[in-house]
Amino acid sequence: MLFIPSPGAITLFEQTFKNIDDILWKDAGCSSELDYVEQTSWILFLKYLDDYEKDKKTAAELSGKTYSNILSPQFRWDNWAVPKSNGKLDHHKALSGDDLKEFVDNKLFPYLRKFKTSAESANTIEYKIGEIFSELKNKLQSGYNLREVINLVDELRFRTHAEKHEMSHLYEDKIKNMGNAGRNGGEYYTPRPLIKTIVKVVSPSIGNKVYDGAVGSAGFLVESYEYMKASKTLSTKDANTLQKSTFYGKEKKSLAYIIGIMNMILHGIEAPNIIHTNTLSENLDDIQEKDRYDIVVANPPFGGKERSEVQQNFPIKTSETAFLFLQHFVKILKAGGKGGVVIKNTFLSNTDNASVSLRKQLLENCNLHTVLDLPGGVFAGAGVKTVVLFFEKGVPTRKVWFYQLNLDRNLGKTNPLNENDLADFLKLQKTKADSDNSWTVNVVDVDKTIYDLSVKNPNKNHVTKLRDPKEILEEMRRLDKESAEILSSIRKLV
Description:
By secondary structure, this protein is an alpha/beta fold. Helix content is 44%, strand content 12%. Helix 4 (97-113) crosses helix 6 (125-135). It is globular and about 80 Å long. The relative contact order is 0.08. Mean pLDDT is 87; it is low at 1-9.
């Protein structure tokens, strides 16, 4: 029976995570929420790996087979992290302080990094071990703090479905906190209600290959996995397909790559097909049919400025990162493939050559059937307004259905987007019905010189309500009074 805590109750897992953050906060090597997630991730991963190996060993024994451990005895969790005697930590054998830090930095990490070159292929958990530990280092400066964190992580279990489920949700919460930590943190987090909505619209099915070329924390791949898992009763073949040949991603930044891998593992994908690479370094002309995917779901970074050598990989030259990603996504989709991509709303109306050419290409090569216009505040720490483009490759666009998400509140950290906010969109999108917030544009009516697709709701009154003159005059008087008081205070100081 799965224990469901009462509302407001703090679970063991939650309390453990809080205690870990408290320790990391006081360590000189960790300065931000991003560091907390990174350092927690590698320790969690090694504990997960220990539980994973124990499960594999048990399963092998039950079937009369022998299991060969991935890690050598010296580097297994039970030996270096939490050696035990009679079920309790053996303080005589357990390393701490400088001894622990020296072992982790100079022996454990170098050993784990070697798996990157010794693994049979990139699709194995051995390779992921090597790549993860090649991309990070232990930042805890105090071996005593590290000992405390290890002891806390050892209390966590990844053995049952319920435990993994709770752990995955808590890890998502940590990623969310990163998104709220500031501008940089927002790079890693797309609001989960929005991701769920996008996945529901593109509706991936088992057998599809799902791709995110700006994978970040892997939220789109994780949600696609959950959606496909729930779509039917899985056969052994289906489960194997979801594990090994369904979800693919690329990520440029080291921390995001590690978080994405860890997030997918905690959600049940044992060896995620995520590559640590710069997606935009790939020349579009080199993409062949075998490289293509059935589904693209992504929130690429926007506002970046790419160098000329990167731009040379694309037919439409632009320094805007998101516009290059959009070209990549269209190219890498199979004919009949479906996309759901978040992009700045200015993409719909910018009059520069690149924007116009890209809109033309999208309308001519794909069926841009739906545009979801989002209000400001959807993305914490980012002031830009965004839209979601839903398209199908291979047929030109005839009609575009627009939906403008109008909410009766301002969005922010304390008042985030929720699934109910998007329920009306999902309902109407199925039939592309008109409403106060939705309408259809015929492409034949679009200006072919600039292909302007800017969001102008014909069902809303766009006339700005003017302020009452008396109200304006009263505010002017109040401001004049305040200015006079400030000047008087300044004169007294002179």
